[in-house]
Amino acid sequence: MRWKSDTYSGWGRALSADGDLARPERISALKGLPPTPAFGARRSYGDACLNSDGRAIDMTRLDRILSFDPESGEVEAEAGVAVGELARIFAPQGWIPTVMPGTGFATVGGAIGMDVHGKNHHRDGAFGNHVKAIRLIHQGKAKTITPEKNAMLFKATLGGLGQTGLIVSARLQMTPIPGLAMKVRESRAGDLDEHLALLDASDAPYTVGWIDATAKGDALGRGIVEEGEHSGDLPPRDGKAKTVPADAPRFALSKPVVKAFNARYYNRIPEEGRTRLRTMSDFFFPLDRVLNWNRLYGKHGFHQFQCVVPTDAVETLRGMIDSVARSGLASPLAVLKRLGSQSAGFLSFPMEGYTLAVDFPNRARAQGLIRSLGEQTAQAGGRIYLAKDSLADGATIKAMYPDWTKWQAEADKADPERLLETDLIRRLDLRST
Predict the structure, then answer these.
(1) What angle do CA 253, 291, 300 make, to 5 degrees?
(2) Where do the FAD-binding PCMH-type domain residues begin and end (predicted)?
(3) What 3-state class would DSSP assign to 156?
(4) Which of 50, 62, 198, 409 is surrounded by the fewest CB atoms within 10 Å?
(5) Residue 256: phi, psi to the nearest 5?
(6) What does each C-alpha distance from 433 to 30, 64, 295, 390, 394 come to in angstroms?
(7) Do the beta carbons of residue 58 and residue 162 sit within 8 Å?
(8) Nearest CA among 347, 427, 349 for reference residue 383
(9) Which of 303, 219, 293, 291 is nearest to 262 (CA)?
């Protein structure tokens, strides 16, 4: 296996690392390798996929489908297979991954390591709730773990940030669908109370809210709620993907530009709402239609803040949204969702409550605001999503995750010399008591 020195980053591009990377094409190439951090498509936003001044394995060429049962919908795939690719291949056969994150480029290994969630967490839980088995390179040997035979190690691996071993493949339970189209109801919410009421009342399989993070006063928290379900109708055609060829200038996401865009985006939905057919890729992965969209934030990159707060912390949520709106720093990409209570792993992010995600250009004022939002999240008994984080401190994160010590114990058993540590693990000091 060949190693190449490179500078690389996560999707946010605000943080980067220098180190040696390898891209193996066969699982056999990993045999005999000392414990080494691995990553997939590097769609986590901060430093979870970085190993500064060390080695890391790029798993994206390990992208084979190993088996598929058309009767049960159970599929085994290598860690580098993209979740969107599973949907593309198996949707015409009547199956899709039960949980799909906001980008189809996320890999199976990455989806497990972050225990990603989608627009259906309130009903179906997170990605890890549908993983039947994981094949790890654990302490130098191949090992297949399941929730029945290796409960503690399994829960430490789901959302475990790659600290229990190298994920090489997984067996997943997919869900049946009647066709390739999505029937989507789009409703306008005039303020935060109406927005939350629509999310709470929805009985759709998939529900997500876009929030206008520039709206203030009586319009604070206004947005659009989308409720989706699978349909057997003929879907429309997917449009051709566009690309952002170069880093955008700073004014591209200036306050007036974002405010004008958000107003136009909100008003495109009639007051009475509308229902229309969309393709699955358009509904599940809307940003994938713009390749390299992270370049819109310029050469300095961006940070995303994503938290979840309990359902009884609405006033805290209102205060956070108000802080974002008054700052004038938010981008058009802001999402509000309702999460359910299912949690697959010790460090899994989802908990019962509302999750808010907002993107900010990488500026000093934005970093200060994000830290303030993190403090408010902690005071409300909420959590910060480690797949998006780049600014939190270790004490805050450890307090947010009550099963952190259980995860730490399993990680130390699996990797006693801490060779799998990444920049995020070191920054948050997660492997130390």
Answers:
(1) 45
(2) 1-177
(3) helix
(4) 409
(5) -65, -40
(6) 31, 39, 38, 21, 10
(7) no
(8) 349
(9) 219
Q: Which residues contact 240 (CB under 8 A, 6 or more apart)?
A: none
28 CB burial (10 A radius; 0-12, 13-18, 19+): exposed
Both tokens assigned to 89: 């291949």
Query: Tens digit of pLDDT for each residue in 419-432?
Result: 999 999 999 999 98
194: enclosing H helix or E strand? helix 192-201
* pLDDT tens digits, one per residue of 29-82: 998 889 999 999 999 999 999 999 999 999 999 999 999 999 999 999 999 999
State the DSSP string of 267-307.
HTS-TT-EEEEEEHHHHH-GGGGEETGGGGG-TT-EEEEEE
Q: Is the dihedral of CA 28, 421, 295, 386 positive or negative?
A: positive
Starting from the edge strand earliest in sequence, which strands make up the sheet with 383-384, in order?
274-279, 181-189, 223-231, 206-211, 334-339, 353-361, 302-309, 383-384
Domains and CATH numbers, the chain: 65-177 (3.30.465.10), 181-397 (3.40.462.10)
Q: Tokens for 406?
A: 């259980």
